[in-house]
Each structure stands twice: as C-alpha cells, then as structure tokens.
Specification:
single chain; alpha/beta; TIM Barrel; 8-stranded parallel barrel; 10 helices
C-alpha cells in the first residue's frame, strides 16, 4: 500500500512540474508576443518619415534613397486663411485617390488680408500648416510648406517673421523626410535676384540647423520666371537647393519654356511649385495646347510640378466647380475645366 501511495505521490509531483513548466512557457510566449506587439505599435506610431521617403538632388534631378529618379506631381491649396475647410484628412486622401498625386502644397499667405504678417492669427495659421503636414504624412505623401509672399514683393520685408516661422516648423518636423520648404513664393515688383539670394542665405541656415537635408525651394524674380538669374548666380554652400519656376499656360509660352530649358542645361535644379492652364491672373480662358506643351517639356526633364489651386473660387484656376460646396469626396463631375484637364493629365 505504501508503495502505491509513493508511486502516486511521485506521479503527482511530476505532473505538477510539467504543468508549471507548461505555464512558464505559456507566460514566456505571452510576454514575447506582448513585447512584439508593443514594438510594432511603437514602430507604427513613431515619426512616419523614414529613409524610404528621403529625397536629394543629383545634378538637376530629384532622386530617392535608392538613387531612383523621383517626379513629384501635386496640388496646391489656395490661401489657407481664406479656404481652410479643404485642410482635412478626407480631402487629402480623396485628392490622392482621384488624381494620383504624391505631393500637397500648403500656401500660407504672408501679407494679404489675414496674412501671417498682416493681421492674421499667427498661431492658428501655424496650426493649420501643421495639421496639413500631418494629413499629407498620414496619406504617405510629400508636403510643401509654402511661405507665400505676393503683395509684400520682396522676401526681405518680413525676413524676421520668416526666420521665426521656419525655425518653429523645422523644430517640430526636422526629423521628417517628406517635407519640402518653399521659402519665398513669387518675388516681384522689381525685386532682384540679389535680394532673394541675400534672404535665402539667412533662411537656409535656420532650416539646416534642424533639418540638415530637406529639399528647400527658393523663389526667383518676376513671379518666379527669371530662373536665368539664379542659374547665373546660384546659391552655394548648401545641398538640396532647388529654384521655383511658375507658369500660367495661356500667358507663358515658348519664351518661358526656353528659359526653363536653358536654366536646366546650365545645371539649375528647377521645381514648378505653382502653375495653371489659364492666364497669369488666375482667370480667363484656359489654353490646353500650351498646357500640354508645358507638361511634355516638364516630363522630358523629370521636373516636379504642382497645380494651383484647391478651391471653388469663381476663377479659371480653381480646381473645383464654384457651385460645389464639398470639402472632400470629390468626383470628376465636381471638377472645373482645369480640374478635369489635370485629372486627365495625371491619370493617363
């Protein structure tokens, strides 16, 4: 009897040890899975920018982290102070799906009504820019932060405000690889390249202090048409600097196309950060023949380009019909003539 009891006790101890070992392994497996899940979650929620979206210049061409050519094609907002409702996640996702774009430009006017430097709510405008950056990032798109001078003519006028703005933006987003900084939209009214270059040489170091390799786009005189002046005297001492050329197809034709070609041949990296297919006022008749000639030239040189503008303003350059009140969920029927042209061009 004692032997039987001894055997049963020994068996019970063995089974207990096996159970403990099994539970231990289950706990280890559970802990491992929890750790892996936490790591995955942390990976997903950390800064969404990675080397896979990093851009740099090789000669006049944009290339990605693996050395492949990149051409950005996208849409610009109108002034975000006037058309803020289009800055939403559903809209950005919709534009990407409908047009196939890969870059979104956020135009923040500096000196117009409610502009950043002319009575606008600076904190609210900065928050709108930050929100737009996040929406574009969530959609796996590039985004251009545009210091949109126009009425102020010369970027030196609000240089100190620009320094503060770009210091804050790059402090927050300096680790992102999908952000491009456009530091002065359309210098005009007699502003020469010397002033633009002097301004750029003060703003670029501020950006570089927080973001050493972001693509920086510098405007050129005469509403971004005089790229020849920049080609003759480019900014030196910094990498990844590009120069903007803007065109409106019904006004700007062979002369400006030739100017762009000559500048590229001279080694100037050009980015068409704004264009329309109407006249230079942003209104009037559209010229699809000239627009198609521009796109052929742009594509042949792998130049990136962004269409003006995301709004339902009653003008030819607005991409949305003026009677459309939607701020997302657009279909082709909601598009203006320019919007339909852009859709056909980008999706062919």
């Amino acid at each position: 009897m004692k032997k039987i009891i001894g055997v049963l006790l020994a068996l019970f101890v063995c089974l207990s040890l096996v159970g403990c070992e099994k539970n231990k392994k289950q706990e280890e497996t559970k802990t491992t899975k929890q750790t892996e899940t936490q790591a995955t979650t942390q990976e997903e929620t950390k800064s969404p920018k990675s080397d896979s979206m990093a851009l740099k210049l090789e000669g006049t061409k944009l290339i990605d982290a693996t050395g492949n050519p990149v051409q950005l094609k996208g849409i610009s907002t109108h002034g975000i102070a006037w058309f803020p409702d289009y800055l939403n996640q559903d809209c950005i996702n919709n534009l990407k799906d409908l047009f196939g774009i890969n870059v979104f430009r956020i135009a923040m006017y500096t000196d117009e009504y409610n502009g950043y430097c002319s009575g606008g709510d600076k904190e609210n405008l900065k928050q709108m820019v930050k929100n737009g950056v996040e929406y574009a990032t969530n959609a796996d798109m590039y985004v251009i932060v545009d210091w949109h001078i126009l009425n102020d003519n010369n970027p030196l006028i609000h240089k100190e405000e620009a320094k503060e703005f770009f210091s804050q933006m790059t402090s927050e987003f300096g680790d992102r690889d999908n952000i491009l900084y456009e530091i002065c939209n359309e210098p005009n009214n007699g502003t020469g390249w010397g002033d633009v270059k002097a301004y750029a040489n003060e703003i670029i170091p501020i950006i570089r202090a927080n973001d050493p390799d972001a693509i920086i786009i510098v405007g050129t005189p005469t509403w971004c048409q005089d790229v020849d002046q920049a080609a003759a005297d480019p900014i030196t001492g910094y990498d990844n600097i590009m120069y903007s050329l803007h065109f409106y197809a019904a006004t700007h034709k062979d002369d400006l196309r030739n100017k762009m070609t000559n500048a590229i041949n001279a080694g100037l990296p050009i980015f068409v950060s704004e264009f329309g297919i109407c006249d230079a006022s942003g209104n009037g008749a559209i010229d699809e023949e000239s627009a198609n000639a521009w796109v052929s030239l742009i594509d042949a040189n792998n130049v990136s380009y962004v269409c003006w503008n995301l709004s339902n303003k009653q003008e030819s350059s607005a991409l949305i019909n003026s009677d459309c009140s939607k701020t997302s969920g657009f279909t082709i029927d909601d598009l203006s003539a320019e919007g339909k042209w852009l859709h056909a061009t980008l999706t062919k």
